Amino acid sequence: MLVTNMKTHPKTQHSLSRTMRLFASQWRHQLMVIPAMISFLIFSYIPLSGLINAFLDYSLTDGFYGHAFAGLTYFKQLFSDSDFFLAMRNTIGMSLVKFPFTFISPILLALILNELSSTKLKKLTQTGSYLPHFLSYVIVATLWMIFLDRRGPINQALTALGLISQPIEFLAEPGLFWWIGMFIDCWQETGWNAIIYLAAISGIDQEIYEAASVDGAGRLCKIFRITLPSITWTMGVLFIMNVGNLLSGGPVGSNFNQSYLLGNAFNHSTSYVIQNFVVTTGLNQLRFSFASAANLIISALSVTLLVSANQASKKLFGKSVF
């Protein structure tokens, strides 16, 4: 055993010294990471300590400490609240409607842009598809409220084409809300999310395409035999990350924005989501422990989905994120 340790020790020392040399050569880059780490610590990790309030009788007048232990009291109240189950149903339903479209549409756009032969047209299309991403969701919601108004351009176009005889109250129809949310997300974020796939496609060796052309392969054959297999792992990584964010709206994470800005009394039965429930009970009604219990359940479900997607990736592709 002593001989084995003596043999492995120099290798360990060499690996450690190599890591230190690499760190020293990249110290400027390492310093650039520190602000991001501090940001994550302040805004992502420290707030996690607030989840303990789900088990305490939290009150603003008591400060940070000294709250009475409440156990599972607020969880029992939560599971007897009809609004919670309505919010959960809408959250899951809206997310499941959005996820396949918002996940696939950037891949399709990246493939289309990659096949465009005109550089000017490609740049124009990219720029046009990116722009909606930089708009505040308040502006986006206002624009679509105008577009979807009974006297808006969409109703006018449908009437002019003879597809409808009476204007449709899009935002007053509960059955349309999830699909409207999906369409708005695709419109706003498809171009931006396609950047990652375009970067992955640009890294594919062009000689492979040239060899395929020599063998007589067409565009569709190259897409299905070269491009898609080459970006499979990129798709897998983003799939895992997006599944973890499923209950917030998938790749876009806009459930709360749409619920808060586009929701109303007419579509409440389908627009009221769990994030809105947490804000309403926590901030408006000052039921902080009750809201923390709801948030803890969503966080636990999100972590479960993330781990499950990672394990599925490990079995399907032999790779995983963690």
Keywords summarizing the entry:
two-stranded antiparallel sheet, 2 strands, single chain, mainly alpha, 1% strand, 322 residues
How would you characterize this protein structure?
The chain is mainly α and 322 residues long. 70% of the residues lie in helices and 1% in strands. It has 15 helices and two strands. It has a two-stranded antiparallel sheet. Helix 4 packs across helix 14. The protein is flat. It starts with a helix and ends in a 5-residue tail after the last helix.
In short:
With 322 residues, the protein is mainly alpha-helical. The chain has helices at residues 2-25, 27-45, 73-78, 82-115, 119-130, 137-147, 153-160, 177-202, 206-214, 219-230, 232-244, 255-262, 268-271, 274-284, 288-317; strands at residues 56-57, 68-69. It has a two-stranded antiparallel ribbon.
Q: Which secondary structure elements does this structure contain, and how are they paired or packed?
A:
Layout: H1 2-25, H2 27-45, E1 56-57, E2 68-69, H3 73-78, H4 82-115, H5 119-130, H6 137-147, H7 153-160, H8 177-202, H9 206-214, H10 219-230, H11 232-244, H12 255-262, H13 268-271, H14 274-284, H15 288-317
Antiparallel strand pairs: 1-2
Order of helix and strand elements from N to C terminus: HHEEHHHHHHHHHHHHH
Counting copies of identical and different chains, the oligomeric state is single chain
Overall mean pLDDT stands at: 87
Backbone structural class: mainly alpha
State the distance separating the first and last CA atoms.
32 Å
Helix content: over 70%
Number of helices, counting only DSSP H or I runs of 4 residues or more: 15
Strand order of the largest sheet: 1-2
| Strand composition percent | under 5%
Major sheet summary line: 2 strands, antiparallel
Pick out the low-confidence regions.
1-8
Outline: flat
- The total count of strands amounts to 2
Task: Supply Rg.
Answer: 25 Å
